[in-house]
Amino acid sequence: MSSDTPPQTDRTESRDQSDDSESALQTVVDQLSEVAEQIDLDPNVVERLSHPNSVYEVTVPIERDDGSIEVFTGYRAQHDSVRGPYKGGVRYNPSITRDECVALSMAMTWKCAVMDIPFGGAKGGVQANPKELSEREHERLTRRFTHEIGDIIGPMTDIPAPDMGTDAQTMAWIMDAYSTNVGETKPGVVTGKPMSIGGSEGREGAPGRSVALIARKAAEYYDWSLDDTTIAVQGFGSVGAKAARLLDDWGADIVAVSDVKGVRYEPDGIDTMAVPSFEEEPEAVTDDADEVLAPEQLFELDVDMLVPAAIGNVITKQNVHDITADLIVEGANGPTTHAADAILEERDIPVLPDILANAGGVTVSYFEWLQDINRRAWSSERVNNELDQEMHAAWDDVRTEFEQRSVSWRDAAYIVALSRIGAAYDARGLWP
Ligand code: NAD
């Protein structure tokens, strides 16, 4: 366990000098101190929030299919639990690091708070390439990792979820290994499970749905009619395809969608249902397209709204000047670097931040957890209705700060989150 974090810098210094190689952890800590200053957050609370509560590093030995033993490294970072149990994904990725887990766990704390969900932030992962694991190896790795972190996860303490390289089946193995260890079936230990063991309706499509809801709210706010709004979406996976299809359904013109291979561009509007999502057929977005552009050309398109929904750090100091869209809605986690964000702010291009826009995922995870605790499943109508209500409430809270303080949408979302966390610290105090 450790708690070293980078030094804090002031807003101007960090924005002027930062470049795109700035670490994700430094970015999150800088954002925290910048926003804390604006709302006079107690410096003692800022100090506590600048450090994760705990970071666990474990070794995960497994038997490979050829009989050899390989030892992987796994992490679980638990950032803050002042508002409730830790919550956050588990990713399998060869390049995952301790600091990345800490940074992502902090972002989860803010995301839960902006949605007013009674959870704190966590993130974990194993340094493994899921493409190099057979299904049996994936299962062995998951069960052993669960065993190694078994003492620190649980329905009332820390609740993992799927993330890069993990899926509903991975969650089923975690749930089974944990339940076997504690001698009792505990569906609430993870979210994003298969329906047969306590998963929720609507969980899969929830992040894309929330991106579409926030995009629609933003269009309304700026007095745009969705019917006259052109949108380009980067990434046509779980988040991007769902968001694009809903916005298409609500009348917007989705003129470009992309995957790693390229951009499908149809200025008159794409029939998004006819384009296979990543899940339906991986990397087939440009198959049979009349006009295909290089992946990086997506940002140069003359559209009203841009939805980066693929991976992090794609809008950088290098390409931010190519962007001509009037509004950005972040579907992916951290698609905009800190330096690019500052330039977008200078150029008056509003950015609806990830911690609000894609928070539908953790919100429906919270609904799943409630259903597991109560052993009572909700209908998909109920899930979607409650998600819509939660997203609209969060939008209203963020919009109020945006208008009253004349800050960016990102800062407004952070202000909502940090005010709630600060109030919880005020009430609880520090003990022992
Ligand atoms: P996914 O794997 O289902 O789809 C990713 C898509 O992005 C694919 O179409 C892929 O081809 C495309 N892509 C990857 N690299 C690209 C590149 N360099 N240029 C263009 N396209 C590229 O992933 P997902 O679950 O939709 O997640 C997308 C993002 O949303 C990630 O940042 C993820 O962390 C975030 N997110 C996901 C969830 C969730 O529950 N799925 C929730 C919140 C946030």
Features:
single chain, 432 residues, alpha/beta, seven-stranded mixed beta sheet, 12 strands, disordered N terminus, binds nicotinamide-adenine-dinucleotide
Protein model, in words:
The chain has a seven-stranded mixed beta sheet. It is α/β, with parallel strands linked by helices. It binds nicotinamide-adenine-dinucleotide. Nicotinamide-adenine-dinucleotide binds next to helix 8 and strand 7. Homohexamer. Keywords: Oxidoreductase.
Note the overall shape. globular
Bound molecules: nicotinamide-adenine-dinucleotide
Mean of all residue-level pLDDT scores: 94
Q: List low-confidence stretches.
A: 1-19
Radius of gyration: 21 Å
Number of strands: 12
- What is the CA-CA span between the terminal residues? 19 Å
The helix tally amounts to 13
Q: Describe the strand arrangement of the main beta sheet, using strand numbers.
A: 9-8-7-6-10-11-12
The secondary structure category is alpha/beta
Describe the sheet with the most strands: 7 strands, mixed
Element string (H = helix, E = strand): HHHEEEHEHEHHEHEEEEEHEHHHH
Beta content:
15-25%
Q: What is the helix fraction of residues, given as a range?
A: 40-55%
InterPro entries: Aminoacid_DH-like_N_sf, Glu/Leu/Phe/Val/Trp_DH, Glu/Leu/Phe/Val/Trp_DH_C, Glu/Leu/Phe/Val/Trp_DH_dimer, Glu/Leu/Phe/Val_DH_AS, Glu_DH, GluDhGdhB, NAD(P)-bd_dom_sf
Family: Belongs to the Glu/Leu/Phe/Val dehydrogenases family.
Domain Glutamate/phenylalanine/leucine/valine/L-tryptophan dehydrogenase C-terminal: 200-429
Region (Disordered): 1-25
